[in-house]
C-alpha cells in the first residue's frame, strides 16, 4: 500500500440555486409518495429496506452529491439535506439511510488520499450506484486491524485482517460499501487511524440482524461482526490525520440528525392534520360543530406548527452554511470547524425537543381513535424517542452554553 499526500480541494463549491432545489425537491417528494404506503408495514416487519433503496437509486438520489465530472448529479449539501428531510417525513429509517449514505460516501473526500483516488472512488460509485454505510460507532470496542503478509493465513494475499464487532451499524446490512477504520498494527499504516471501505458482502462480514428496539425498525441498524476480513490497498480511503476539514463529517452527521428530527415533527403534523379533518362532530362542551373548527384544537396546532417552522428555518440556513464550510476544503481552520459545530448543536437541541413534543402532543387533537395500531401515528414518536437517546441532548445544551459564556469548544469527537 502506498500513501499519497492528502488533497486540499473540496469537490463541492458554491451554493444550490433555485432550479436545483426545486428539481430535487420534486424528485424527493415523488419518492416519498412512493414510500409512504409501505412505511408502516416496514416498521412492523423490520424488513431490510432493499426496495426503498432501489427507489432512491432509480430517482437519482443515490448519486445526488457525486460531482457531475465523475458521473453524479452534481448537487449541493443543502439540496441533499432537504431531500433527506422530505423522505424522512414519511419514513425516518429510510431518510436516515439516505443521509448516512451521503456522509459516508463523502468520506472519500474527508479522508481521501489524493484527487485521482477521489475521482476513482466517485466514478465507480456513480457507475454502480453504490449505497454507503459505516460501522464506526464510537461506543463499541475498537476493531482489530492487523497486517498479514499473506503467509499467516495461507492465502498468499497481503493486506490487513479486520476483526471485531460494531453495534448500531445503520444500513450496513443493505450497503454496497461499509466505511470502517481503526488503529492499524503493522504494515505501512502502523500506528495510524486508517479508514477504508469494505464490501458489504465480503467473506467474513457477518450482519447480526440483532436490531430490536422501540423505533427505527426499518433502518437495518443491527451489528456487524468482522471475522478475519481481508482489507487490501484498493479498499483504503486514507488516514485520519485529525485535520479540521476531515472532522467536518461529524457536524454533518449532527445536521443530518437535526433534519431527521424536524422531519419527524413535520410528518406527525401532516398525519395529524388528515386525522383531525376526518374527525366527526366535536367535544360535547365545545361550541364548534367539528373538532377541526374548535379553537382549542386551533391553539394546539398553531403552537406546534409555529415551533416546527422555526426549526425548519434554522435547518435551511444551516444547510447553506454547511455548503460554505465544506467548500473550504483543506483551508478549513479549527475556528471554522468550531463555528459550524456550535451552530449545528443549536439545531440539534431545538429539533430534538420540538420533534419529541410534536410527535407526542398531536394526539391532543387527533383523539383517542388515533391511538389504534392500524393508524401508525405512534411511529413518529417511537422513531425520535429511540434515536435521540443515542446522543443525549443535555450535552449539546452544555456545549452551546459553555461556548456562549466562555468561548469554550468541546474536544473534537465522533459526537461533537
Features:
416 residues, Butyryl-Coa Dehydrogenase, subunit A, domain 1, Butyryl-CoA Dehydrogenase, subunit A, domain 2, Butyryl-CoA Dehydrogenase, subunit A, domain 3, 3 domains, eight-stranded mixed beta sheet
In sequence order, what are the helices and strands, one letter per element?
Answer: HHHHHHEEEEEEEEHHHHHH
Which blocks of ≥5 consecutive residues have pLDDT under 50? Answer: 1-7
| Largest sheet: number of strands, sense, barrel closure | 8 strands, mixed
How would you name the CATH homologous superfamily of the largest domain?
Answer: Butyryl-CoA Dehydrogenase, subunit A, domain 3
Distance between the termini: 32 Å
Our Rg estimate from Cα atoms comes to 22 Å
The count of strands amounts to 8
Number of helices: 12
- Strand-residue proportion: 5-15%
CATH class of the largest domain: Mainly Alpha
Find the CATH topology of the largest domain: Butyryl-CoA Dehydrogenase, subunit A, domain 3
Number of domains: 3
Helix content: 40-55%
What average pLDDT do the residues reach?
A: 94
SSE-based structural type: alpha+beta
Shape: globular
Instruction: Tell me the CATH architecture of the largest domain.
Output: Up-down Bundle
What does this structure look like?
The protein is of the alpha+beta class. The model is unreliable at 1-7 (pLDDT under 50). The chain starts with 17 loop residues before the first helix and ends in a 10-residue tail after the last helix. The protein is globular. Strands 1, 2, 3, 4, 5, 6, 7 and 8 form an 8-stranded mixed β-sheet that branches. A hairpin with a 7-residue loop joins strand 4 (177-185) and strand 5. It has 3 domains: 18-133, Butyryl-Coa Dehydrogenase, subunit A, domain 1 (Orthogonal Bundle); 134-239, Butyryl-CoA Dehydrogenase, subunit A, domain 2 (Beta Barrel); 246-406, Butyryl-CoA Dehydrogenase, subunit A, domain 3, CATH 1.20.140.10. The chain has helices at 18-45, 50-59, 77-88, 92-105, 107-110, 115-128, 249-278, 295-326, 334-361, 363-366, 378-388, 393-406; strands at 132-134, 144-148, 159-166, 177-185, 193-199, 205-207, 224-231, 236-239. Its EC number is 1.14.14.21. It is found in: Cytoplasm.
Amino acid at each position: 500500500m502506498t500513501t499519497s499526500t492528502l488533497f486540499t480541494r473540496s469537490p463541492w463549491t458554491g451554493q444550490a440555486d433555485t432550479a436545483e432545489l426545486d428539481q430535487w425537491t420534486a424528485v424527493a417528494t415523488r419518492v416519498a409518495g412512493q414510500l409512504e404506503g409501505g412505511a408502516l408495514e416496514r416498521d412492523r416487519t423490520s424488513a431490510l429496506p432493499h426496495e426503498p433503496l432501489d427507489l432512491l437509486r432509480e430517482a437519482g438520489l443515490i448519486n445526488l452529491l457525486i460531482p457531475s465530472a465523475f458521473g453524479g448529479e452534481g448537487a449541493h449539501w443543502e439540496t441533499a439535506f432537504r431531500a433527506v428531510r422530505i423522505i424522512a417525513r414519511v419514513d425516518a429509517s429510510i431518510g436516515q439511510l439516505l443521509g448516512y449514505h451521503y456522509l459516508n460516501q463523502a468520506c472519500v473526500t474527508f479522508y481521501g488520499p489524493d484527487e485521482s483516488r477521489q475521482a476513482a472512488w466517485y466514478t465507480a460509485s456513480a457507475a454502480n450506484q453504490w449505497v454507503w454505510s459505516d460501522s464506526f460507532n464510537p461506543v463499541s470496542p475498537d476493531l482489530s486491524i492487523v497486517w498479514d503478509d499473506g503467509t499467516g493465513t495461507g492465502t498468499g494475499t497481503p493486506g490487513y485482517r479486520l476483526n471485531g464487532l460494531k453495534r448500531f451499524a445503520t444500513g450496513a446490512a443493505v450497503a454496497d460499501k461499509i466505511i470502517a477504520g481503526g488503529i492499524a498494527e503493522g504494515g505501512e499504516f502502523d500506528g495510524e487511524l486508517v479508514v477504508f471501505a469494505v464490501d458489504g458482502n465480503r467473506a467474513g462480514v457477518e450482519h447480526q440482524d440483532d436490531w430490536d428496539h422501540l423505533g427505527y425498525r426499518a433502518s437495518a441498524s443491527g451489528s456487524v461482526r468482522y471475522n478475519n476480513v481481508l482489507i487490501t490497498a484498493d479498499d483504503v480511503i486514507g488516514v485520519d490525520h485529525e485535520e479540521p476539514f476531515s472532522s467536518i463529517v461529524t457536524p454533518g452527521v449532527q445536521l443530518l440528525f437535526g433534519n431527521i428530527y424536524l422531519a419527524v415533527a413535520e410528518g406527525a403534523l401532516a398525519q395529524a392534520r388528515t386525522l383531525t379533518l376526518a374527525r366527526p362532530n366535536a367535544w360535547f362542551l365545545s361550541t364548534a360543530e367539528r373538532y377541526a373548527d374548535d379553537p382549542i384544537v386551533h391553539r394546539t396546532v398553531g403552537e406546534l406548527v409555529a415551533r416546527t417552522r422555526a426549526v425548519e428555518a434554522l435547518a435551511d440556513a444551516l444547510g447553506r452554511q454547511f455548503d460554505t464550510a465544506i467548500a473550504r476544503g483543506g483551508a478549513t481552520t479549527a475556528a471554522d470547524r468550531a463555528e459550524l459545530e456550535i451552530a449545528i448543536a443549536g439545531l440539534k437541541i431545538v429539533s430534538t425537543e420540538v420533534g419529541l413534543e410534536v410527535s407526542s402532543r398531536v394526539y391532543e387533537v387527533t383523539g383517542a381513535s388515533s391511538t389504534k395500531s392500524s393508524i401508525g401515528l405512534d411511529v413518529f414518536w417511537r422513531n425520535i424517542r429511540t434515536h435521540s437517546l443515542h446522543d443525549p441532548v443535555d450535552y449539546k445544551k452544555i456545549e452551546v452554553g459553555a461556548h456562549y459564556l466562555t468561548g469554550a469548544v468541546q474536544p473534537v469527537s465522533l459526537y461533537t
